[in-house]
Amino acid sequence: MYSRRHVLPATSPEPHCSSFHCLFLGTMARAALIFPVCAETAARIAYIKFLYLTLAVHEVAHLHGTRDRRIAVTHSACMPD
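^ that's the sequence the OP posted. Answer follows.
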């Protein structure tokens, strides 16, 4: 679902709250609150939104020509070792 190799900004006070996993769970919770749907449908909506967000940030990083790991580049092939 997401790369565990992502690196968070050094200024993040609570790294666990800034992770993509928490972003996904937060998106899923909001989807469940906004749409009167079952949990499975809310999870699907959240997953689609999550993929869209990570792809958008990934593309922005490439457009700006940066490899700064603090920009949420989630595709492991684009992250140098």
